[in-house]
Please model this.
Amino acid sequence: MNQKNATMVEKQAAKVKPPALFDVVLLNDDYTPMDFVVEVLEQIFSLGREAAVRVMLRVHTEGRGVCGTYPRDIAATRVSQVVNLAREAQHPLQCIMEERES
Model:
């Protein structure tokens, strides 16, 4: 191959940005029993009893508590699971997801 027809390709390192992370947050209400909130935290977020009680108390005293941090799809699934479980039990428990700032 002669040099007139040669093409030079410069290698560049691919810069891949990590996926955005979202906090899953429980919101306080005056009707959902504390025991139910602890059960939700244990079942859906796989928290141990002590950690679940700590998050539940934060929700109760501060009005909100972070249950976990996940990529968008997993966070949305967890929010949906919490809301569905609460509705089945006829509790008004609210759960949201918020993008974590990097």
About this structure: Residues 21-99 form a domain with the Ribosomal Protein L30; Chain: A, fold (CATH 3.30.1390.10).
